[in-house]
Design brief:
The complex is a heterodimer of chains A (about 375) and B (about 375).
Chain A (H helix, E strand, L loop, with lengths): L1 H14 L12 E3 L2 E8 L5 E13 L8 E8 L2 H7 L7 E3 L5 E5 H5 L1 H13 L8 E5 L3 H6 L8 H10 L12 H11 L2 E8 L4 E10 L2 E6 L1 H11 L5 E8 L2 E9 L3 E5 L6 E12 L13 H29 L7 H8 L1 H7 L3 H4 L4 E12 L5
Helix pairs in contact in A: 8-9, 10-11
Chain B lengths: L9 H12 L3 H12 L4 H25 L5 H9 L1 H33 L6 H16 L3 H26 L16 H12 L7 H5 L12 H28 L5 H5 L14 H31 L5 H4 L2 H10 L4 H44 L1
The chains are: A alpha/beta (about 375), B mainly alpha (about 375).
Chain lengths: ~375, ~375
């Protein structure tokens, strides 16, 4: 009796189990970075709906091997990764993709841009945590760079973004956040990536207005924009001129507060940001006396002036030159002043450049270093 | 094996009901709500929860009036025999259809996210086969399984919830208190799919250890509403209303956004899918069992175990009716609004009213005699 039971169980074990989706890990190419460019013919003509996809994936079995780079031309991410199957002995797997870099030419054409975006969002293996960056040069060239610190470029870029202490000159960059912005308003800021010899630099961002590239936002302006959006935890690298020498202060902004000021003629928005700061350096034998409360008060005031001025400059550029609401004022109005928003929603694109935006910084210096 | 061999305790009943209600509806609930109104989705959910609570009270009342009786016998007592046969048949069709749709949706989701190359037929038949295995046993086995699975599910869900709260922005839930009464009424029907399954209480009533405590089933509704509230708040805080409308399964995408530096697994979705498969199984199995119980009562069959397998082909073919995902969702919503609402809300209500009238007439007859 027992023997029969055991035999039938073994039969069940071996005959009724199976797996259609089994993949040997060696047979997969785990793509870590993808670069997407507009395809142009050798004569330099751009061809609509044709893109060059450059893939980077690590070589299996070796620990410190460089990435393997392959490139192909095709219409979309899916078909290209399928086409690649006929050119390689491995299955292209996008589940571990970390970084997507797109050339600015794609973003300049809203149709291409939206095609590429949906290709990313619709892919079941692609995570929403993938970093999306935009470059002025060729995205394919960036993928080919081998950073001296880390052999795998996809990993390298993704880690730059993940470090919390990085200088806030770059936007969050996760494709999920970018999708949220684009779904809501069609406007967003995509981090800009600049190639170097043996590394890449991420700084500033490309402004997208209604799915179309509008222009580049500089590093400084991006940093201040991020403070206004509450998307950064440090505003390092700010200095203030005090008695003919400059004093660097590390600032830690808190979440900003938006306020709608009642005004009959125009919409008035006041953005208030509280920041804490540490003085990092003064001047050798300067006799400023950092132990005087008044001295610190003066530095605080100066710092407030400087940051407010920079923030206003950034707002001015975004509002007047790019006319694109990437500060999130539309979102604020929708969330907190729904009735007003319903009235202006349809014309928001025309209204935004003409509203009054003011900033108010409140800086409190907490630590003063080790020297008086 | 007799049906009343082991009775189901009250806590087992509550666990069964919670796990039965939570299934595929959870994947689309946030989107369906976002399509109705851009704000105050939680008010709709609370209103729907109150409505379901009333229905559960109706079920519990029926069970209290006729303790220990099968639902089919109650139908016979209240609606007269011919109508009872037709109603019971309609229930069987309802269960077959509902399980078929749930199975198809289950297969579609699994195929989209996990097993891309596995044929959907294999996925469907495997989940149905495991449900047959469970429904061959009594309701008490189901109760024991539910009380074993529920804490695990809650634990995993709590873990996931805490993790996904890290990146969310609660400002996305604004504005609040903008909703009008008509919008609430419009919103309630779309939530009904997420509550289907609670009617199994009627069919398991005969197996309850203490039929008088069946009113405690409202606790199950409260737990389900609480769980849905949590999911709604999390998904809306993550995606906002506008983006929500373009996501097919927002609840699954939610866990795709969670990133925890230093966590040993990169993709939380694996855990989510694992838990979700369990909740779908615990929805299909009780529904299957309820269908088998009804079939057994109609045919006056003694052995229930042998009745469960013949259901499989019908359910399987029902699951193949929809042509694609869009068609599946259209059929499901029509099924829910026109058929399920009758079977789940109207029929029990009529049964209760008829029982109450009969009880009153009976009393009067006694006093007159």
């Amino acid at each position: 009796m027992h023997k029969k039971a055991i035999v039938s169980m073994l039969v069940i074990l071996f005959l009724l189990t199976g797996c259609w989706d089994k993949v040997e890990i060696e047979e997969r190419a785990h793509i870590s970075a993808v670069g997407i460019d507009m395809y142009s013919t050798p004569d330099g003509e751009d061809v609509p709906n044709r893109y060059t996809f450059t893939f980077a994936f690590p070589e299996n079995k070796k620990d410190n091997a460089k990435d393997i780079i392959v490139a192909s031309v095709g219409e979309n991410l899916y078909s290209v990764s399928r086409i690649m199957a006929s050119r390689s002995n491995k299955e292209f797997f996008l589940g571990h993709l970390r970084t997507v870099v797109i050339g600015v030419d794609i973003a300049k054409d809203p149709k291409s841009f939206r095609q590429i975006l949906d290709g990313i969002e619709n892919n079941e293996f692609l995570s929403r945590r993938v970093v999306l960056a935009i470059t002025e040069d060729s995205a394919g060239e960036i993928i080919k760079i081998v950073p001296s610190m880390e052999n795998k470029l996809g990993e390298f870029i993704a880690e730059i973004f993940r470090r919390p202490d990085r200088i806030p000159r770059i936007v969050g960059g996760s494709v999920g956040d970018i999708f949220t912005d684009l779904h809501e308003s069609g406007n967003t800021l995509i981090p800009k990536i600049i190639p170097g010899e043996t590394d890449v630099k991420v700084a500033g961002g490309g402004i997208i207005n209604n799915y179309e590239f509008r222009g580049w936002l500089g590093e400084e302006e991006t940093a201040h924009l991020l403070v206004l959006k509450g998307e950064t935890k440090c505003l390092c690298g700010m200095t203030v001129e005090y008695k003919d020498h400059s004093i660097p202060v590390a600032l830690r902004p808190k979440k900003p507060k938006f306020r709608l000021i009642e005004d009959e003629d125009n919409i008035k928005i006041l953005i208030e940001v509280e920041m804490e700061g540490d003085v990092k350096q003064t001047y050798f034998e300067a006799h400023d006396d950092m132990l005087e409360v008044e001295t610190i008060g003066k530095i605080e005031n100066k710092m407030e002036e400087v940051t407010e001025q920079r923030a206003r400059a950034a707002i001015d550029k975004i509002q007047k030159r790019f006319e694109t609401d990437i500060i999130g004022i539309g979102r604020y109005l929708r969330q907190s002043h729904y009735k007003l928003w319903k009235e202006i929603e349809d014309d928001w694109e025309e209204i935004f450049p003409n509203i009054d935006i003011d900033v108010n910084m409140d800086i409190k210096i907490r630590r003063i270093g080790l020297i008086r | 094996m007799g049906d009343n061999k082991g009775a189901v305790s009250t806590s087992q009943m509550i666990s069964v009901l919670i796990l039965t209600a939570i299934s595929t509806g959870i994947l689309t609930l946030p989107r369906n709500l976002a399509e109705v109104v851009p704000y105050d989705h939680w008010i709709i959910l609370l209103a729907a929860g109150t409505f379901i609570m009333i229905m559960i009270t109706v079920y519990a009342w029926i069970i209290r009036l006729k303790p220990g009786k099968q639902y089919f016998e109650i139908l016979c007592d209240s609606l007269s025999k011919p109508i009872a046969y037709i109603t019971a048949l309609a229930y069987i069709i309802y269960f077959t259809g509902l399980i078929g749709l749930l199975t198809r949706l289950f297969g579609e989701v699994i195929k989209a996210y996990l097993l891309v190359r596995t044929p959907i037929e294999v996925i469907n038949i495997s989940i149905l086969a495991s449900c047959i295995y469970l429904s061959r046993k009594g309701v008490d086995v189901l109760g024991r399984m539910a009380i074993f699975l529920l804490p695990i599910t809650i634990l995993i869900t709590a873990f996931l919830t805490i993790l996904s709260f890290i990146n969310t922005n609660l400002r996305n839930l604004l504005p609040v208190f903008q909703i009008t009464f008509t919008e609430v009424l419009q919103g309630i029907p779309v939530t009904l799919l997420s509550f289907l399954g609670l009617e199994v209480l009627l069919f398991f009533g005969a197996d309850l250890e203490k039929p008088k405590e069946s009113i405690w089933a409202t606790i199950a509704v409260a737990a389900v509403v609480l769980f849905y509230l949590l999911v709604i708040i999390l998904t809306f805080a993550q995606f906002g209303t506008i983006q929500m409308r373009s996501l097919i399964w927002p609840t699954l995408d939610l866990f795709d956004t969670v990133e925890i530096p230093g966590l040993f697994i990169e993709n939380l979705q694996v855990i989510v899918m694992g838990t979700w498969v369990v909740t779908v199984f615990t929805t299909i199995a009780p529904l299957y069992m309820a269908g088998v119980i009804t079939a057994k009562s109609i045919m006056n069959f003694r052995d229930r175990a042998s009745l469960s397998a013949p259901f499989l082909p019908f359910i399987y073919f029902a699951s193949l009716i929809p042509k694609n995902l869009a068609h599946l969702y259209r059929i499901t919503s029509k099924f829910t609004i026109y058929f399920a609402s009758v079977m789940v809300f109207a029929v029990p209500l009529i049964v209760l009213i008829s029982l109450l009238i009969r009880a009153k007439l009976g009393k009067e007859a006694k006093t007159n005699a």
